[in-house]
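It is time I had a proper look at our fold encoding. Can you supply me with one protein entry, sequence and fold together? It will help me judge whether the discrete encoding reads sensibly. Leave the record below and I will have a look:
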Amino acid sequence: MGTLAFRSVLFFFLVFIFASLCHATDDHQVRRLWPPTPNKYQLEFVGVFTSEADLGISNGSQFMEAVFGESWQENLSRPTSVATIEDNTVLVTEWGSGDIKVFDFSQKKTGNLFKSQFSLFENPVDIAIDDENNILVADQKKGVITVFDRNLESIALMDGNIEFEKLEKIAIDSVTQTIYASDSVLNKVFAFDRNGQLLFEIGAGENSEDKLKSPHGLAINREGNLYIADTGNSKIKIFDNAGNFLKIFNFKQDKDDSVLKKPWDLAFDSQGKLHIIDQGSAALVTFDQNGELLFATMAKEPTNHSMGLYRPNDIHIDSKDRIIITDDLNNRFSVWQVLTKAYLAENPITEDDVVALNNYIEKGKSDLAEQRKAKKAIALNDEPGKKVFKESEKKAKKKQRKVVCPNCNQEYALVFIGLGGE
């Protein structure tokens, strides 16, 4: 992808932390906390996961790697969605896969969920778990939602006699047991009961505010209202649990520009904060329910750096407030931990953590300055190089994005640091 030395972003990407869903203490590791001081930390980056090697290598794995090399590990291929069962098991669907990949963080193993010799799916695009641990899988090519019980037996096919054109996302209201499904070609969201019977449709109203354009992500807040990522209109629209339009989610900002470009999926954490992944800006953007922007995690453009995003397409927040995001073009999922009181009680942020983090940031800034200095020296040795250098500097400044973060009480126009050539 080339050097990232001249690419501007909204925030400092920090350093690598142990690849596990549980925080591990190590004097040689720096906890990557966001946003940086003097602001209040909101998230901690945990890591990215694409194969069993990312979970910690067992003795058997070490033997296989010694014999066959690292390539024997089966990596994720275009993951489309993610969900969790229990505390340390992550289920991942992949584009065109006939099974579901399991990442077992307790056993440090990966594998297939069904282990069937037959393909159960043609193109699974979303997965959800209900309160009875039934697994719901939306198959875009088949146009159905299949329900599996805890014994992995298929117990229902849900379609409500709807001929889905492009099934996208599903969500379950744990109170009413309503199951929602979006279709980006039909421009509708459908609501079903537990038996798969159609209850109502959203998006077919005559008012422009009711209408949807290429809807994708779905999330339900504490009050039972349905939040829809109206992707084609770059909006988040809110409906009650009977399908009645309530309002458009209002982003509080000074300018009329939309905060979102291509909102793809969204989820609420236990504190009621709304987390949105935006494919248009390859970003994770977080708001409170009043529309105040709390923090944004994004680069100037898509990236394959471990802490960046290329094409995020699914977000899931588990019972421990871990944010899990699938990135299909990076063939992985990333994990961030919301800094709740419970998490901080077990993993307090120490003065040493803050010092190590700040030292890393300063070193990154220094390294970046040296990289720029070296590149400028090389470019100025010849006229064509000088012209290319000036153009790259001009473009970098022009494309630099800024966002006002009320929670941080300052405007961020920060730079990518410490990324090398990743």
User: Anything to note?
Assistant: Helices lie at 59-68, 341-346, 351-379, 383-399. The first strand starts at residue 33 and ends at 34. The radius of gyration is 22 Å. The domain at 76-341 is CATH 2.120.10.30 (Neuraminidase).
